Predict the 3D structure of the following.
Amino acid sequence: MPDDAAKKKQMMQNFLNRKRKMDLKVEGEEIQKPSTSSEMIKEDETERKNEEKFNKAKKALLFDAKRAKDRAKEMGPQGYLKPKIPSTNKEFLRRTIQSTMPRGRKKEVVDDK
């Protein structure tokens, strides 16, 4: 029994120490404000770039939603299924392209004497 009490006390102390360390880290991290105009410009540029990315993502999502709405209106739930088109026969395609290419001719050797 005394061992259990000591273990519990030690576990509680460890927990409190971890919590104190976490609290110190949060308080220790101060956000530094830009001190020069070039740092402020860089901060503004990164802010603008993040805003542009957000706007692009927003437009893409709205475009997809609109397209999905139109597709559902025209075809219903079947519009979301992948079309059942057989895959390309790659070997046939390769041979067809090879047959249309000109045959390799022997290169004439030119001697400059």
User: Anything to note?
Assistant: The chain has a mean pLDDT of 79. The first helix runs from residue 2 to 28.
